[in-house]
Amino acid sequence: MTHLPSCKKIQNNRDGVHCAEMAMVCLNDFEEYAKVHLNKLTWDYYAAGADECCTRDDNLLAYKRIRLRPRILRDVSVSDTRTSLLGTEIAFPIGIAPTAFHCLAWHEGEVATARAAESVNTCYISSTYSTCSVEEITAAAPNGYRWFQLYVYRDRKLSEQLIHRVEALGYRALVLTVDVPYTGKRRDDIRNQFKLPPHLKVKNFEGIFQENVGPDEYGVPTNTLDPSISWKDVYWLQSLTRLPIIIKGILTKEDAELAVEHGVQGIIVSNHGGRQLDGGPATIDCLSEIVDTVQGRIEVYMDGGIRTGSDVLKAIALGAKCVFIGRPVVWGLAYKGSDGVREVLQMLAEEFRLSMALSGCRNIAEINRNLIQFSKL
Question: Helical H runs in the chain?
C-alpha cells in the first residue's frame, strides 16, 4: 500500500514558498506531494515515459523480483556507507542523475540541487539542459563534487565549448549520454504541446540560438542533436579533454565491452528513465551481465527505478559502484527546494544503512551477490 502523506492544508509552493510541514516517511510521499503541487504540464513532463511507458514502469517493478538473503549475528553496531567514485570519496553510493529544467519545480532550480548535493557530500551530474548555467551552479556550491552530462551536437563546436567551460569550472568528469540520437516519443508531452515557459531558458545555451526562429524542442532548436554519433566520437572527446569520460545509456554486454576498448572510465547502465526506447529492459536486469563483462576494468554505475534503500542495496550487491536518482530529486525540489532534495538523499541513505545492517553488512565491501536471490514470481 502506498503511504499517502497526512498534512495540513498547504498552499501551492511553485513560487518557492513552503507553507506547512508534512510528515515525509518515504520517497513516495515526496512523489505524492509533487503530483498535487506541480502544474499538470510540468508533472506530465517529469513523469513521462516513452510510448506505453512499459520500460519506465518495469524499472520499478524489476526490484520487486529480487529478494535479499540476509545474514545474521554479524555485529552491525557500527556501519559505514562511504564509497568512492573515480577515486573521490562520497558519503554513500547514491548520487543525483542528470535531469532537465529544475526551475520548473522550484524557483532556484539547479542551484538548489547543487547546494543539497554539496551539503551531504555526494555526486551531482549537472544536465546540459539546466535552467541554471554551469557557472551559476558552481558559484552556488563551490566545493561540490560535480560531473557534467554532455550530448554531441551536429555543431561539434557547441559541444566543445561546453566541455571547455565545465573543465575550467572544476567539473570532475564528462557523462556522455548516448541513448538519444532522436528524442523518444512521450505522448503526454505531445498532447500538452510541452515547451519551457517564456521566463525560463536552457541557460547553458543562452545567446547561442537567438537568431534561430524555427521550432524548438525542449528549449533548444529541433535537429540539434546529432544522430550520426558513433564510437569514433569518444576518441574525439578524448582529444579535447583530460576529464574522465563516462558513457550513460549502455544496456548490453556488447556495448560494455566496446566502452572498455575505447578507454572510457565508467559506464552508467541506464535506459533514460524509460523515456527513450519503450520495450527495453529494466536497468537492474542489465546490471549483472555488464558488471561481468567489465570485470573491474572500469567503474559501473546505474540509474532507473531506485525508490528505497533496499533498492540501492540490491544494485550495489549486483555490482554497481553507485546508483543515481532522477525523478525523486525533482520531487524533493517541488517539496522544499534545496532542503527537500537533501531530505530525499538523507532518507534514501538512511534506508540504505538500515537495509545493510538488517542484511548483515557493515560496510560497502561486505555487499556482494551472495545477498541476492531472484524471485520465480
Answer: 27-37, 40-47, 54-64, 110-120, 134-140, 156-168, 187-192, 232-240, 253-261, 283-294, 309-317, 327-358
pLDDT at 138 over 50: yes
**Dihedral sign from CA coordinates of 46, 314, 263, 245:** positive
Contact 371, 86 (CB under 8 A): no
Select which of 18, 102, 262, 272 is catalytic: 272
Instruction: Indicate the class that CATH gives domain 27-60+80-207+217-349.
Output: alpha beta
Confirm whether 199 is a catalytic residue: no
Q: What is the pLDDT of residues 149-204, one digit of tens each?
A: 999 999 999 999 999 999 999 999 999 999 999 999 999 999 999 999 989 999 99
Q: What is the pTM of this model?
A: 0.93
- Average the pLDDT over each of 79-93, 171-185, 195-209, 304-318 and give the range with the smallest value: 195-209
* Res 2: pLDDT: 34
Express each pLDDT in 151-164 by its tens digit.
999 999 999 999 99
Compute the chain's Rg from CA coordinates: 20
Task: List all residues 6 or more positions away from 191 whose beta carbon is below 8 Å from its beta carbon.
Answer: none
Taking the domains of the chain in order of start, what are their residue ranges? 27-60+80-207+217-349
State how far the alpha carbon of 348 is from the alpha carbons of 157, 309, 370, in Å: 39, 5, 23
Displacement of CA 129 from its chain's centroid (Å): 13
Neighbours of 238 (CB within 10 A): 16
CB within 8 Å of 95: residues ≥ 6 apart: 85, 117, 122, 123, 124, 125, 301, 322, 323, 324, 325
C-alpha cell at 162: 561546453
CB atoms within 10 A of CB 198: 6
Tell me 80's DSSP state.
Answer: B
